[in-house]
Design a protein that fits this description.
- This protein is of the alpha/beta class.
- The chain has one domain (21-271): Rossmann fold (3-Layer(aba) Sandwich), CATH 3.40.50.300.
- 38% of the residues lie in helices and 16% in strands.
- It contains 12 helices and 8 strands.
- The chain has helices spanning 35-48, 63-67, 79-83, 89-92, 113-117, 126-130, 151-159, 172-190, 210-222, 236-240, 248-251, 256-271; strands spanning 23-26, 53-57, 94-95, 101-104, 140-144, 162-168, 196-205, 227-233.
- An 8-stranded mixed β-sheet has the order 3-4-2-5-1-6-7-8, with helices on both faces.
- A hairpin with a 5-residue loop joins strand 3 and strand 4.
- Helix 1 (35-48) crosses helix 12.
- The longest helix is centred in the middle third of the chain and has 19 residues, at 172-190.
- The protein is globular, with a radius of gyration of 17 Å.
């Protein structure tokens, strides 16, 4: 069960601001656009550059958790316990195989959290409050959002300083962008006035196809200031890496996919200056 975004318009503005750390919500209500792939590999690339990252797996499918080599069913404390106030971020965070990258894992139990959260006080800002204290040394938080605009994603947007929007190079993606920008305005008006667009990231880009170029040019025309220069290519190594429990930057450090995510990390660091 997911929460429709319409009630956002009736929410009371919250005075509590986001955590002082940069918090990047990787968000798109459409599945299969590369949210989890981007969250894992961007986090790994930033950690590789010497910027310690905390990755929060907010998706009940727990793909960020398994994609980094952890078994979701064996996680003692998860983002579910974080949202319900049963633990702190420091207690839930676990190290990964990537130096400098920590993870707050997820598991299927999170699927019922939206129902539980609906009856809780301050249901939209529970993650924001939890992230007010993060493990020592962390410089950036990345949130891997579920493929919906429900209450879990709303918690991510209330906590975030920026939205990173992975967008597949297909025409259906353009309609999804319009919905996301509408949601962005609602969240800014009612929950988090500091939420910015961190960038639109074109994923699964195949330079051999006319369709990919047509979609890229349309996004470039409609959102010139928000479109990132980095293009994530359609690359088999990116697809293979999660089955080995590694980011592509470790699985095949020299492949085109790894190079693209390193380029993305550099671009986002430059934009934040």
């Amino acid at each position: 069960m997911t929460q429709d975004i319409a009630p956002l318009e009736q929410l009371t503005p919250q005075m509590l601001g986001p955590t002082s750390l940069p918090v990047l919500a990787v968000v798109n209500q459409k599945g299969g656009v590369g949210k989890t792939t981007t969250a894992i590999n961007l986090g790994a690339a930033l950690a590789e550059l010497g910027h310690p990252v905390l990755l929060v797996d907010l998706d009940p499918q727990a793909n960020s958790t398994s994609g980094l080599g952890l078994n979701p069913s064996r996680a003692r404390l998860t983002v579910y316990h974080l949202l319900t106030g049963e633990c702190t971020v420091a207690e839930a965070a676990v190290p990964t195989g990537v130096p400098g990258l920590q993870l707050v894992p997820s598991q299927i139990d999170l699927a019922g959290a939206e129902i539980e959260l609906a009856s809780m006080s301050e249901r939209e800002t529970r993650l924001r409050k939890a992230l007010a204290t993060t493990p020592e040394g962390v410089e950036l938080v990345i949130i891997d959002c579920p493929p919906s605009l429900g209450l879990l994603t709303l918690n991510a947007l209330a906590a975030a300083t920026q939205m990173l929007i992975p967008t597949q190079c297909e025409y259906f993606a353009l309609e999804g962008l319009r919905h996301l920008f509408y949601t962005h305005q609602l969240v800014r008006s009612n929950l988090n006035p500091k939420l910015e667009i961190g960038g639109i990231l074109m994923t699964q880009f195949d330079a051999r196809t006319t369709l990919a170029w047509d979609v890229l040019n349309e996004v470039r025309r409609s959102h010139p200031a928000d479109l990132l220069k980095t293009l994530i290519p359609r690359n088999v190594r990116i697809s293979e890496a999660p089955s080995h429990g590694q980011p592509v930057t470790q699985y095949d450090p020299t492949c085109r996919g790894a190079a693209a995510y390193r380029e993305l990390a550099h671009e986002l660091m430059e934009r934040s200056r």
